[in-house]
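We modelled the chain as a single entity of 190 amino acids. Its sequence is:
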Amino acid sequence: MNLSVMPRNIEIKAVLRNRDAVVAAAAKKSDAEPETIFQHDFFFRCSKGRLKLRIFEAGRGELILYERENVALARCSHYRIARTSDPEVLLDILSHALGRTGEVKKTRVLYRIGQTRVHIDEVEGLGDFLELEVVLRPDQTEAEGQKIAEALLCDFGIGKSQLVADAYVDLLLSGSNQQSATSAEYRPEH
């Protein structure tokens, strides 16, 4: 992948210990009403980065290729998205051609705050999480995006011990859950 031409965002994920407080803070800061999205993600073998098919509902999905580090910090993610109106057939093709490596089911409540997508995720088998995606403009530095993400974490009362390094699919495959947020499996920043 040529990372220099791919869209970028700054992402950070945290375990939600007080979902109601974070929802209230996000609603207060949000630019619009929240959107509830049901997502079923299927992951496939990929030589570099991650490849997933996200199915929203029959007839609507996205194929997403992305690269990012698994660190419990605000980190840059480079990605490409292709939308599809036939996700079930694409799922069958990719499953046969590449093989599945995992899947994640979640209910996501999306708030938009400026250039940031604030996700309140209820992940089946894991629990409740906050995920921030600061969508960077082409002329914007990663440091600027990290500053925005860190300010929102502060506004939401999220501490460093709540930060999560790994993707949901990795947490599910390792047998982690939301209650073990301080365990080494979540690799919080020290």
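As a brief sanity check on the tokenised model: Strands lie at 8-15, 35-44, 50-57, 60-68, 75-84, 100-113, 116-123, 127-135, 163-164. Residues 90 and 105 are 18 Å apart (CA to CA).
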